[in-house]
Amino acid sequence: MKKISSLAIALGLSALSFHSMAQNQTMNLWPEGKIPNFKASSVQEKSETDASGILRISGVTVPTITAYIAPKEKATGAAVMICPGGGYSILAASHEGSDFAKWFNDRGISAFVLKYRLPDEKAMTHQHEVPLMDAMQGMKMIRQNAAKWNIDVNKIGVMGFSAGGHLAATISTHYNLGPNASEEAKPNFSILLYPVVSFRPVISHGGSRDKLLGPDKSEELINYYSNELQVSAKTPPAFLVHAMDDSSVPVENSIEYYLALKKFKTSAEMHLYPIGGHGYGLRTEGKGSLVNWPAAMEGWLKASGFMK
User: Fold this and answer.
1) CA-CA distance, 85 to 38, in Å (whole number)?
2) d(Cα 165, Cα 168) in Å, to the nearest integer?
3) What is the pTM of this model?
4) Which of 120, 116, 98, 104 lies closest to 43 in space, CA to CA?
5) Would you kindly state where each structural domain of the chain is located, as residue ranges?
6) What is the pLDDT of the chain when averaged over all its residues?
7) Which of 26, 149, 243, 276: CA 20 to 30 A from 41?
8) 181-202 tens-digit pLDDT
């Protein structure tokens, strides 16, 4: 009897493990040998976890997307593609990626963590084009597989942090610009956490700007990727969070984006907090009223019809 029980437990654990693997599926964004703007190089991807438990991924040249599908009994039909931050130099893939995927799943929302390519002239041509290409491809993949994943094609948003917030704002404002324009890549909403929005002097995050634009940096590209200047009547609604004492990315980035949306009468909700700094994610302990921001986002998701 003991042997049978042990076997049953083992089979149960095996099934649970398989279920978890099936739920968290990692897929390449592009077919092998067909990654756009790719250059053969010695750049290698590295993953390191620092003393505070933050997973940092560098040297990304082969982009992927990892699906965290909400359980059917909880699923609301909504989904969000998550773009971790890191100044376009690294990806803070846990506390600005997988941690939030699990948070969304608990609330019935499917999540997809985007491991986008990090701009590097050694590994790609026209590096400023590459993160947006990857984000648009990720959004298309989610839409094209929506039925399989029990997702409503009209409830797919994008979330980004810091430089990932810049990428989320870029896809929100540029999905219909240029030769690769595609309605299929349009987010239905955006969630921007301490985002880099502008590359203009004074309020820009110089590191993100220089890393993205690289040797092609020009006034024309600086304006093109200053997303507050590219907001239109077609830009999706946004939820923004920023701390007033953020010394890395000035709070004016969120304010300028909010005002641009307001100009076009696009729905937007912004929460500014007196203290919090930068890069906190869900780690809000000791940061005063910032502890309330996840609850504010929950309220917004419910009011917008993305959460029950």
Assistant:
1) 22
2) 5
3) 0.92
4) 120
5) 23-30+43-303
6) 93
7) 26
8) 999 999 999 999 999 999 999 8
